[in-house]
């Protein structure tokens, strides 16, 4: 290989692959210890200890769980469509990782800082339903198929309100680039205007990730585990990894859209010594804690209540709020690009 080839192709490619590997490694590490944090937080909220046996304070429990799932036999039902059955969990996990390509962790620190980053994120999150439908169909089980249909209708229902929430943010900032969304100037009245949309978005991401109290696709009491009922070992683990990675992704999206990303929460000079990526991480962890808090606090909704909330409450409210935000921006003469 010539020096020109090395400088033009090899070293840039190696740098990009290293960047991708670092992102995936960090996400998997955070995801593993997010499961540990969930068990400890739920234990504390239920006045018990949680994992305490494997390692000091149970810190090696996620590693033990991973080894256990890797060492188990993958059982494929005899009546299942084997290829689709195996592709479904891989697709779910891969989509959860691919979405991180456009997330800006700090100023200039994103794998791909594209101009339509928010559309890319929304497209990738919408495709997540395909893996679940494929799993339910390929399992050739009535319980798995019912769980996948539940999940598909639930995710589609709440993506509508999530999309309208994102529209209100875009109206205020005037850009589809995630870095521009973070750095856009937002006066105090605009923050107040977006506050109801923050609450709608937080509830919608619970439904989008199939998390309690909206974990109807995995309803153990009626459909015995939903679309994952026929999965075992690493195929089950990939669904598990995809779910928790999606939770971290949605927390990062909330941080980007509403919480100022890597910027300090208040314009105080004493806070400038904290690196930008640390603010991003702290805010994302705060939203991740919300997932655990909701699981420990609320009982599971009935399915008709879940659909009613999405179509009869969130959809009309977000539609009306898009008009309210648009009218307020025109009235305040604060269209994107005109604020100082």
Using DSSP, what is the number of strands?
A: 0
The main pleated sheet reads as:
none
Distance linking N and C termini: 52 Å
In terms of DSSP E residues, the strand content is under 5%
Number of helices: 11
* Spatial extent as radius of gyration: 21 Å
Q: Which structural class is indicated by helix and strand composition? A: mainly alpha
Indicate the mean pLDDT.
Answer: 87
User: From N to C, what is the helix and strand string?
Assistant: HHHHHHHHHHH
Number of domains: 2
Any idea what the shape is?
globular
Helix fraction by DSSP (H/I, runs of at least 4):
55-70%
Poorly predicted runs are none
Oligomer: single chain
What does this protein look like?
The chain has 340 residues and is mainly α. It folds into 2 domains: 1-71; 80-331, no CATH class. It has helices spanning 3-45, 61-71, 82-98, 117-138, 142-173, 178-183, 188-208, 220-223, 233-258, 276-297, 303-331. Helix 7 (188-208) packs antiparallel against helix 9 (233-258) and helix 7 (188-208) packs antiparallel against helix 11. It starts with a helix and ends in a 9-residue tail after the last helix. The mean pLDDT is 87.
In short:
It contains eleven helices and no strands. The protein has helices at residues 3-45, 61-71, 82-98, 117-138, 142-173, 178-183, 188-208, 220-223, 233-258, 276-297, 303-331.
Protein topology:
Blueprint: H1 3-45, H2 61-71, H3 82-98, H4 117-138, H5 142-173, H6 178-183, H7 188-208, H8 220-223, H9 233-258, H10 276-297, H11 303-331
Helix pairs in contact: 1-9, 1-10, 2-9, 3-4, 3-9, 4-5, 5-7, 5-11, 7-9, 7-11, 9-10
